[in-house]
């Protein structure tokens, strides 16, 4: 059955069960998928991405009005870099890893073997609709699994691009795309899987974890939340402001690792706010008309999210905030100008909910300790960004806060280094993706102990227990 038949929403339960059964039979017939076959899958994915570069831009443009160069960077190049990284390192990742042997285990040898988890499910969000499906897919295939991908229904052009291109590059028993909304997702989550890799909101993350519990399926949750940026008085303020402005404008702030809000030393607060305004003018023009016409400012994904963001802006103003820059919108076009908010009350929704859009509240602090306690009082974020030239301040923030990832004196870029595991901490996620961490996430790390030679001591462990075993236990407890 071609996957396109299954993909027509709503996919019915028997369709899904048949697809999973087909992948399971394929997995069982080929396990463990040899190195060469995995390389072939990754190379097919690489070719598919390369061949689809232009149509990918069009699909994303239709969903978001996002600049081609941004699509090339954040959807295309990031995927290609990750595939090439896997191609380069797969042989090493697949090798069983020897572990040390403690003295008391003499005569044995231990190793860890990564074995595939089987038929896996990848549920993707809308904000990077292709890349956030492709990156986990790379890990799933590298680890020798099959995969079913459920893209977001909010970006239908990108979802179709995935279905058509992956459908042409892979057989449904290798990789399949199932389109649909919550009902389809719910039906998928009812099925037994070898692993579920979910990227999305913490609220839906809980739904996924509950469903996974039914089959005790391992899950990875890549979630969101409020990622703080701390700017101390020693930072290079014009540079920090420019970098933060860029980080907030990429995909109009609709990015899980966007700086959500800024905590800035009161002594440099006004300079920082002014410099952000200047940076935004340099990026997108000085007038509201210029900003609206900027080809580099993406739109909000849909009217529901536009209304949500305008609601956050209204609520912030009601609580006394002012827009130091921006503050205007054209709802019919789903356009919201990048907006820096000052004088924001801690009661305002913009200070409490994940923003996921181009609004940036800036809060002043008097002592670094105050900023640290502000972060500590909230859920662990996906990222924490820190701008400082003082090594002891940097160390203090790192030591007293926790987050999935941190960038010092820049933003977003840790995502691009496949050697750094990517994921959240607590409320912002569970488990790790990218590079070798992603490969291991999609593997069962099996511990294997080989008995190599036997001595008389081994038998002392058998009943009837005598003096020798008691002495052995004493030695082990005291000396080993
Ligand atoms: P979402 O949680 O609403 O949806 C994600 C996926 O889950 C979609 O495919 C959707 O169809 C499905 N879904 C939605 N409701 C469901 C339900 N009740 N039951 C089963 N499936 C359901 O998230 P979103 O709005 O698409 O994306 C935005 C969120 O994702 C933000 O919180 C953002 O921070 C987070 N995010 C995290 C990362 C990361 O890598 N950590 C990356 C991108 C986005």
Give a count of the beta strands, DSSP E runs of length 2 or more: 18
**Cofactors, ions, other ligands:** nicotinamide-adenine-dinucleotide
CATH class of the largest domain: Alpha Beta
Number of domains: 2
> pLDDT average, as an integer?
95
End-to-end CA span: 59 Å
Query: Which value, in Å, is the CA radius of gyration?
Result: 25 Å
Q: Give the oligomer, counting copies of the same chain as homo and different chains as hetero.
A: single chain
Full CATH superfamily name of the largest domain: Aldehyde Dehydrogenase, Chain A, domain 1
Number of helices: 18
> How large is the share of residues in beta strands?
15-25%
Regions with pLDDT < 50 over 5+ consecutive residues?
1-10
Helix share, percent: 40-55%
Strand neighbour order, sheet with most strands: 10-13-14-9-8-15-16
Summarize the structure.
The chain has helices at about 5, 15-30, 35-50, 55-65, 70-95, 130-140, 155-170, 180-190, 200-215, 235-250, 265-285, 290-295, 305-320, 370-375, 390-400, 435-440, 455-460, 465-480, and strands spanning about 95-100, 110-115, 120-125, 145-150, 175, 195-200, 220, 230, 260-265, 320-325, 330, 335, 340, 360-365, 385, 405-410, 430, 445-450. The protein is an alpha/beta fold and about 475 residues long.
List keywords for this structure.
480 residues, alpha/beta, Aldehyde Dehydrogenase, Chain A, domain 1, six-stranded mixed β-sheet, 17% strand, globular, binds nicotinamide-adenine-dinucleotide
């Amino acid at each position: 059955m071609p996957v396109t038949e299954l993909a027509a929403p709503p996919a019915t339960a028997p369709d899904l069960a048949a697809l999973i059964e087909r992948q399971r039979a394929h997995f069982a017939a080929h396990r463990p998928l040899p190195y060469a076959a995995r390389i072939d899958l990754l190379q097919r994915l690489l070719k598919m991405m390369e061949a689809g570069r232009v149509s990918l831009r069009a699909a994303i443009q239709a969903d978001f009005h996002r600049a081609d160069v941004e699509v090339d960077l954040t959807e295309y190049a990031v995927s290609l870099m990750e595939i090439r990284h896997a191609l380069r390192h797969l042989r090493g990742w697949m090798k069983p890893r020897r572990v040390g042997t403690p003295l008391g285990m003499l005569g044995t040898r231990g190793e860890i073997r990564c074995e595939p988890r089987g038929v896996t499910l990848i549920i993707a969000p809308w904000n990077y609709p292709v890349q956030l499906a492709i990156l986990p897919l790379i890990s799933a295939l590298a680890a020798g699994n099959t995969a079913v991908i459920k893209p977001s229904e909010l970006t239908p052009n990108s979802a179709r691009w995935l279905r058509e291109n992956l459908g042409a590059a892979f057989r449904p028993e290798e990789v399949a795309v199932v389109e649909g909304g919550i009902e389809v997702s719910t039906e998928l989550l009812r099925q037994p899987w070898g692993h579920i890799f979910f990227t999305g909101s913490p609220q839906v993350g809980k739904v996924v974890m509950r469903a996974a519990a039914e089959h005790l399926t391992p899950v990875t949750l890549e979630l969101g939340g409020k990622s703080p940026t701390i700017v101390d008085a020693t930072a290079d303020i014009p540079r920090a402001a420019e970098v933060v402005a860029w980080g907030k404008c990429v995909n109009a702030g609709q990015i899980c690792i966007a700086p959500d809000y800024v905590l800035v030393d009161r002594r440099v607060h006004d300079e920082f706010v002014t410099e952000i305004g200047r940076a935004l003018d340099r990026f997108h023009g000085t007038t509201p008309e210029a900003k609206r016409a900027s080809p580099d400012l993406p739109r909000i994904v849909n009217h529901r999210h536009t209304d949500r963001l305008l609601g956050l802006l209204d609520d912030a103003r009601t609580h006394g905030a002012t827009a130091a820059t921006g503050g205007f919108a054209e709802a019919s076009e789903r356009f919201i100008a990048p907006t820096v908010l000052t004088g924001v009350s801690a009661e305002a929704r913009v200070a409490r909910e994940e923003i996921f859009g181009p609004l940036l509240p800036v809060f002043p602090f008097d002592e670094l300790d105050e900023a640290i306690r502000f972060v500590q009082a909230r859920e662990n974020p996906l990222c924490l960004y820190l701008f400082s030239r003082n090594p002891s301040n940097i160390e203090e923030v790192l030591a007293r806060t926790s987050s999935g990832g941190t960038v010092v004196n820049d933003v977003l870029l840790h995502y691009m280094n496949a050697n750094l595991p990517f994921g959240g901490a607590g409320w912002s996620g569970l488990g790790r993706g990218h590079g070798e961490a992603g490969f291991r996430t999609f593997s069962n790390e099996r511990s294997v102990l080989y008995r190599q030679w036997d001595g008389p001591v081994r038998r002392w462990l058998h009943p009837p227990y005598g003096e020798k075993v008691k002495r052995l236990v004493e030695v082990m407890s005291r000396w080993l």
